[in-house]
Amino acid sequence: MRIVIVGAGFAGMHAALSSARLRDIENVSPEQLEIALVAPHPVLVIRPRLYEPKPETLTAPLKEVLDAVNVVYVQGSVEAVDTKARAVDVVNSNGERKSLCYHRLVIATGSRLFRPNIPGLAKHGFSVDNLDDAIALDRHLHKLAAMPASKARDTVVIAGAGFTGIEVATEMPSRLRTIFAKNAKPRVIIVDRSPTLAPDMGEYPRPIIEDALRNLGVETRLNAGVASLDESGVTLSTGERIEAATVIWAAGFRAAPLTTKIPAARDHFDRLLVDKWLHVLSLPDVFASGDAARAACDDVGNYALMSCQHATRMGAFAGNNAAAELLGVPIRRYHQKTYVVCLDLGEAGAIFTRGWDREVEMVGEDAKKIKQEINTVWIYPPKAERAAALASADPERVADM
């Protein structure tokens, strides 16, 4: 028997560890139940930190962890899924193809930044969506230091006032002063079509976020979108022209494209619709987790967000349930009633909220300490030691705050 897990992000990693954990509990050998993880690289990109400097350092190796729990790593990308034949088509870095059969499949391919067809965006826009993009932005910012000071050089426009846009914007002033000079006066502007900042955060945290932006000197342009970009700046939908050498797109995400190749229902983010146990609807042999799945967290209408907090727990449940079905033990219903947000606000500290109503528990330096612990400890893979790695993947405890 074989479980195939597609993706080495937070959901994929935890799916692999959780399925291996249950296999170990049931005293089943890797020869009896093979667990294979397919990904281009055996590396976890610490995506929530890509707004920080030195993004090339924000990865963690997975091969030793997978080896420790007898998970087979398969190098490549899944380009097609045959749900009738129960097989995936894997293409490796050399362009070689092979078919990999499965008894249970876990789709954990994550999400990608949604880039609309705005004139100049593809050529002149930056992002922190993935490791390569974050490295390209960091190199661009350092190249600016060799240029003479000007309005364009010293101005950064961020399109998007959601979590990512705010963390990029609040980090940028100190980041640019480090690159340019301590006495530099960079101009940072957030642009968003919404009439409010951080529309998903709700009314309680918003005044704190607004104060932080004011204290950092970050400007906002709300009720405005990006109409076009060129090499020297951006034109907004309001007609305003902003001279800027750096425009960072941080507006919206979609599930990675593999979900569109699965013959099943999806939402408007291309997430696969799943049941209480994370089965893809109409495909009982296929599970989806993380940003690839639209999953109910509870019975009162809250659904998992595209966040590593939800991805880790969903991955653990999906991996556990895929193994449980093959081993003939009860599966577990996914639930995630506890939800917290810890939003980095740069030199203004951070804000920590709990619950779907975003009730504020901590702000400033206290919240910043929690954010730093999340970013440097909690979201990293476990040690490559069998017992510790397996213990880390208990689905009832993963991401439980």
TrEMBL record:
Superkingdom of this protein's organism: Bacteria
Pfam family, any one: Pyr_redox_2
GO molecular function, one term: NADH dehydrogenase activity
Entry-linked SUPFAM superfamilies: FAD/NAD(P)-binding domain (SSF51905)
FAD/NAD(P)-binding domain segment(s): 1-315
Keyword terms, alphabetized: FAD, Flavoprotein, NAD, Oxidoreductase
UniProt xrefs under InterPro entries: FAD/NAD-bd_sf, FAD/NAD-binding_dom, NDH-2
Family assignment from sequence similarity: Belongs to the NADH dehydrogenase family.
Protein name: NAD(P)/FAD-dependent oxidoreductase
